[in-house]
Every structure is written in structure tokens, then in C-alpha cells.
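Record pair follows.
FIRST:
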Amino acid sequence: MTMLKMSTVHDCPALQYAPDGCNTWTLPKDQREKILNKVLISSNYILDYNGPKKVSSDMVLLYAKSIFSYGLFYLEFRDGIKEGDGGRVKRCYRYTLPMFVSSGRRNYAIDTLNMLLQHDYVLSERQAKELIWSRFVNMHGRIGKNIPNDLHCEHLNRLVKTAIRGVGANKTQKSITRIARALGTVAPILDRFDDDNGVTKPGSVHRVANSDTYGSREVHFFCDVFLSRKLSPTVAPTV
């Protein structure tokens, strides 16, 4: 706040960027650790996370802590699925149960509760292990490339529907059964054909980070708009 010439959390930053000579990363390691301890440990934001709830009037702080909590939990859950770590995913499900109940997601809460009860009390030891460790599929055989079973079933359903559309007017129960039975053989052939001919599938993420050009320019643009219109940084938390 001092660096950006702000007296309270409700003020607008007077500067768009940190002034020259304030690059903290160039300081020695002991000084950087001192700053980190002062910001994180002395303020007790992390140490008191699981302690008794404290009422705070700083809405910006509460909103930021909520965003970080849910965001980090989502990253933990997604990484557990990618690594095929059934134990970690099960622990994440324990945290999602009160989230589902509080948000009115009754069916999700019931399914999660049934899964936890089956693992802890109903199933045998072998069946309990299968319940939490047989929830992933790795189609590439590489580390960190697991996907959920239900997502894999949706991919297979999409292939079946695409093949059925290709039949056209000859769609019968017999032809649909023949397509479904041949799917396990036809799908790898199609994937191998695409790989041999360099046919790439569109992905949802960039192969190479491009934050130095496009991302940086967009961030600067929004900062200029934010400062020019004197927008208040105060954001009320959603319930």
C-alpha cells in the first residue's frame, strides 16, 4: 500500500506499476524471507486459518481469502485426478460434502456421502481399494495424463454417436450394435491415422506460454481503464 501510495484498502492506487528500485526479488535471500514472514506469519492469516472464525470489516481481504481457498482446493482436486491419486481425491471429496450441502446441491451431496460410507463401512478391503483407485483412465500411458472414468465414457459415447450419424438411413438396432462392438478396434486406428498424418486436435490450453506479449498487453490495458475511471477496488463477498 505504501509503494502504491494508498492509505487504506479502499483507496485507488496512485501508481499503475511499482516504482523503480522496488524489485523485491533482487534482494538477498534473508531479506526476502524476512519480508515473507512479516506479511504471512505475523499477520496470522495462515496460522489462524483453521482457528475460530473472526469477524472482519475488510471485505477485500475476506473476498481474496475466499477466492484463494476455493481456487487452491480446485487445483488440488484436479491434480489428484491427473496423477490418479485415489486417496487424495477421496480427501477432497470430504471437503466437497459441506460445500454441496450449503449450496443446495442435494444429489451431489448424497452421491458423495454414499461413496464415503461405502469406502469406510460397507465394502470389504479389496472393494474399498477398487472404489477409490479405479476411478481414472490413462489413455496415453504417461505420468499426469489420467482422466475420470465418466469423462472417458462421454468420449466413447461421442464416438458412437458420430459413427451412427455416418450410417444415415441405414440406422438399425443391428448396425448400432455392430458399431458399438467395433469401437474398441476402430478408435485406435483413427487415432493412429491422425498421428501419422500430423492431424492435431484443438486443445483447451496453450502449448507454450505467451504471457510476455498478449497477456501482458491486456493486463496493462485493464490497469489503465481501472485508473482512468477511478473504479473502487472494494468487492463485496458473495453468499
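SECOND:
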Amino acid sequence: MQTSHDPENMFPLQMEYVYLKDLQEWPGNPKEHDIPGIVDSIQAHGFRNPQQVDRATMRMLAGHGRKEALLLMYERGDNPPLGILVENGEWKVPVVYGRAFPSDRAAEAYVLADNKVQQNAGYRSDALRKSLERVIQRPMGLRGTGFTSEEVDSLIQRNRSTIESLTGVRDSLPKPISGETKDDLLDVGNGTDLADKAEKPSPKASLPRLSDELGRLFTVTLKPADYTEAMEILQKIQASQGLVTTSESFMCALRSFPIE
């Protein structure tokens, strides 16, 4: 039985240029593609993601949509994009070869995984909004990003609605009361999952500091009776905004406070 440590299977990744027309697709590939979007991206950024080919079958494992987009561009007479070579009037594309899969089923499983694993992840909405706000200032705007102006408007509107709802939450929050002891303090820091804290509510929780480099500790003063409600509010913020840590949720709430 061969293993991944067998010398004959330890092929290093290799890249070479092959004719676009010679690329063999994986039969029955179930993935659909946004061909106009891929064409737009290639035209804006060049061809920067090589095709992946199985060494055993010489069929593509990844890049079916890119091949279809390139064929469309070639057949309609577009100029070859950055990253594509031309030889004898034909386009040549970069291809990455790795070790051969032991069977067609193993290769097909990878074809599925290469698409599905990427789809499983989402975006951090606040970071995405900020990134789009920067990118949209380019002369090319959103071209080649896959995002439309309608999607950006929708994202901004959702963010505005969240801020409005958080403003209502702010007005309902209990005011800090003087005279609490150190046992009534909740330290909100970076890197702590809200679910872990919610399982074991406690009037006192020591979480990591917001900035270990600066040696600063941000402390929120709560009455013990308000701890559970505060954690529920932060959990709602976390779920609606796709956040991970307590500090991210807390900062999202703080940003909804108008500065007077």
C-alpha cells in the first residue's frame, strides 16, 4: 500500500504554461460560475490564479469557470489579459501540477471540497464595509471585485439599521452606579468568545486586556443583576454583525453612541 510518504508520490508542485484549448475539464463538475463576473475580474486584475490539474488523469481539478471565461474572451477577439501567453496565435495559461490522486473518487472529492469549503465562510460585515469604502474610491471603483453598487448600498443600509437599533439598546441600558466593589466589575477584553462566558454567568469576569502592548485594561462597571442582560445584548450584536470576540461586539455598540 502506497502512502503520501512514498518517493514516487512526493511530487513537488510544478507550474507550466499549456494551451487553453488543451485543458480537459473534470466530467460532471457540478459548480456553476458567474462567467461575466470572472471575465470582469480577469480584465481588471489579470489572470492570477493558475489552473489545477491532476497529474494522473491530466484533467482540471480547479479553474473550470476561469477556463470558460478565457475561452469566451479568446473567441470574441479580446486582447490576452496579463498572465496569459500567446504562441502561434493561441492562448496559453499557467497550470499547477501536484501529486496524482490515488483514484478518480479521491480527485472528485477534492473538486467538491475546493468549491464548498470556500462557500462555507462568510464576511465580517464591519471589515467588509470598510474595505469596500476604500476600494470604491479607486478610479475603477468596484470593477473586478464581484460586488455591485446595490450590494454595497444594502450593506451600508444594514449597518445604519444596526446602529439605529443599538442606539435604542443604549437608551435602555442601566446607568453605572457609584459604589460598586471590584466584585461588580466586568472586564471586556479581546479574544474571548461570548458563548463561553454566557454558559457560566458571573458578576466578575477577568478577560484579556484590550492591548497587552500598551498595558491598558478597559473595565465596564455593572451591577451583578445586569450581567446576564448585558451578555445577551452583546450576543445579539455578535450574531447580527458576524463578530467573534466580546471586545468587537462592545466596540460595535460604542460606535453607535453619538459624539456630542
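COMMENT: The radius of gyration is 26 Å.
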